[in-house]
Write a structure and sequence with these properties.
alpha/beta, globular, about 280 residues, 9 strands, single chain, Spore Coat Polysaccharide Biosynthesis Protein SpsA, Chain A, nine-stranded mixed β-sheet
Length: about 280
């Protein structure tokens, strides 16, 4: 029976055929130093042992809630279902193959309580390989003005590391499936219309990279949706893209319609450009 006391945080993890990593992901949440949370697992029609593993944890911990999609709804709709079920003041995102560091929730809740103007807070991530070995780190801009200044160049958050204020989501709306697989990027722009952005300097998660997870077609769809999002908000008063932003977007578009750079090389080049921009 679901605990009737409303938790401070709802952690939402979408799953799909995640049997290899879901135990480690769930343990990283259940072992948090901050204990006042519910863990909502939304399974998007897994055909492996994911649900059996999740159900085993669910029987042992009443903070776990399991939702099962009758059909495969893809990420945006699956996330929306989890957020709609969330009872917490804050909603924390996480992926089924990632690992939250032990004090992640504690740090984010403390920050949100002290900064009521912020609607979404992320943090740095440690990028690991399939076996959990560290490869590198990625840090994000910290303050609202820094994030807005660069939002037309790069996604401003590590998506599975964000914590969001539920009251802001009720104003901004949830993820729009039209923008798949860049639904998170469009979502950030809307959240920023109602609140400030922030990132913690601290590492919050271990973000797992699976080789060849992005196909040529998948990368192209993401780029086209990303460009569409930017154009939609170019002249919005909350952002106002610069001439450099618009020129960068044009170059990005040309690189998609004239695909002379192999996808893997493009991803590496993008990472180098991101690291170079201050």
């Amino acid at each position: 029976m679901r605990n009737m006391v409303r938790p401070s945080v709802s952690v939402v993890i979408p799953t799909y055929n995640a049997e290899k990593y879901i135990s480690e992901a769930m343990r990283s949440v259940l072992g948090q130093t901050f204990k006042d949370f519910e863990l909502i697992i939304v399974d998007d029609g897994s055909t492996d042992n994911t649900l059996r593993i999740v159900d085993r944890y669910c029987r042992a911990d009443e903070r776990i809630v399991v939702l099962k999609n009758e059909e495969n709804l893809k990420l945006a709709r699956t996330l929306n279902r989890g957020i709609e079920a969330a009872r917490g003041k804050y909603v924390a995102r996480m992926d089924a193959d990632d690992i939250s560091l032990p004090n992640r929730l504690e740090k984010q809740v403390d920050f949100m309580e002290k900064n009521p103007e912020v609607g979404i807070v992320g943090g740095a991530m440690e990028i690991v390989d399939e076996e959990g070995r560290k490869r590198r780190e990625r840090r994000y801009w910290i303050k609202d003005e820094e994030i807005r200044k660069r939002i037309f160049l790069f996604s401003p958050f590590c998506h599975p590391a964000v914590m969001m204020r539920k009251s802001v989501l009720e104003k901004s709306g949830l993820y729009d499936p039209h923008y798949n697989p860049a639904e998170d990027y469009e979502f950030y722009f809307r959240v920023g219309l109602y609140s400030e952005f922030a990132n913690l300097k601290d590492r919050l998660i271990k973000y797992r990279i699976v080789p060849d997870s992005m196909t040529t077609g998948g990368l192209r769809r993401m780029e086209l949706r990303t460009i569409e999002v930017r154009k939609r908000f170019f002249d919005h008063a909350a952002y106002r893209a610069s001439r450099l932003d618009k020129f960068y977007n044009l170059l990005h578009y040309l690189s998609v319609v004239v695909p002379i750079i192999p996808p893997k090389l493009k991803v590496r080049l993008f990472g180098k450009v991101r690291a170079f921009v201050k």
